[in-house]
Write a structure and sequence with these properties.
21% strand; single chain; globular; UDP-N-acetylmuramoyl-L-alanine:D-glutamate ligase
Length: 298
């Protein structure tokens, strides 16, 4: 039987694990063929004291896609995954690519991680925000924003669980069948709530998880989350509860391993806190459920 195949379009770093470097290995471990297009190529993520590299332009993305399309490879993809895009020209070209891929292969699942910012701070331009909100969002099957990104996409200020539900319903109304708000600040000092909702016919199934906080700044976690959720939804035939539990439990194992490594060497710098993905191969393949999802009525 052929393996599922993902086209993953997001950032790349030479050293460390963000973007495609964070997503590819877990997807491969879980049985996916992965083809990658890099939106940027950097030496490392931007929190290091020095970051060098190149931005891939919309014209470059167009050329790469024309090569894939010209060789009649589009129908091979079961999934499309997108993450951080540096420029509006790249993002605008991406809209055309998603539209074309869905036209040629109506069964493809598009997972959009709308990387726009966090904690009230934008990483992208106003033009990119508009493209996400008005053009990419209606094309997405699955979307994985953080709280700030969900607020930007919906125009709702999130301060309670009721606000989360309102925001999720707005995202559903714009055509997204599965919404996962990966992290929110409406929990307590020790835990971060995560919320997910899936349209199943005329019904909505909704779940929340409480994720223990780890006192460190990790990078690449959103990219990892989107890749794991994509994989487990596919492998479980869209069992949302089980997919969330596998995704979050795997992430917590990786983050705790990373944190414990940094603690063991007495350094909590950017390099020491690069995700320990390779060391977590077995945990990615066969996660132990450590966090359970709770059903939300309504």
């Amino acid at each position: 039987m052929d393996s599922p195949r993902v086209l993953s379009i997001q950032s790349h770093v030479v050293h460390g694990y963000v973007g495609n470097k964070s997503a590819t290995f877990p997807l491969q471990i879980l049985g996916f063929e992965v083809d990658t297009i890099n939106s940027v190529q950097y030496s490392n993520h931007v929190h290091y004291k020095v970051t060098k590299g190149q931005e891939v332009l919309g014209s470059d993305l167009h050329d790469l896609f024309q090569g894939i399309s010209g060789n009649d490879l589009i129908q091979q993809y079961t999934h499309l995954l997108t993450g951080y895009c540096r420029s509006a020209s790249f993002l605008s070209e991406l809209v055309g690519i998603v539209t074309e891929m869905k036209k040629l292969n109506p069964n493809i699942k598009y997972v959009c991680d709308p990387v726009m910012g966090d904690n009230g701070k934008f990483y992208v331009s106003d033009d990119q925000v508009k493209i996400y909100r008005e053009q990419l969002l209606p094309l997405a099957d699955i979307i994985t924003p953080n709280q700030f990104e969900a607020e930007v996409l919906t125009g709702i200020k999130i301060e309670s669980t009721d606000d989360i539900i309102k925001a999720i319903d707005i995202l559903h109304s714009r055509g997204v069948s599965c919404v996962c708000i990966t992290s929110t600040e409406i929990g307590d000092e020790a835990r971060l709530p995560c919320f997910a909702s899936r349209l199943n016919g005329n019904e909505k199934e909704r779940f929340s998880l409480m994720i223990p906080k780890i006192d460190a700044r990790f990078v690449g976690t959103g990219d990892l989350f989107a890749a794991l959720l994509l994989a487990w939804l596919h492998k479980s035939n869209y069992d949302l509860k089980g997919s969330l539990e596998n995704t979050v439990s795997t992430m917590q194992t990786i983050l705790n391993r990373t944190f414990n490594y940094a603690k063991s060497i007495g350094k909590f710098d950017d390099d020491s806190l690069e995700l320990k993905l390779i060391q977590s191969k077995i945990d990615i393949e066969t996660p132990t459920i450590t966090i359970n999802a709770t059903s939300i009525p309504g």
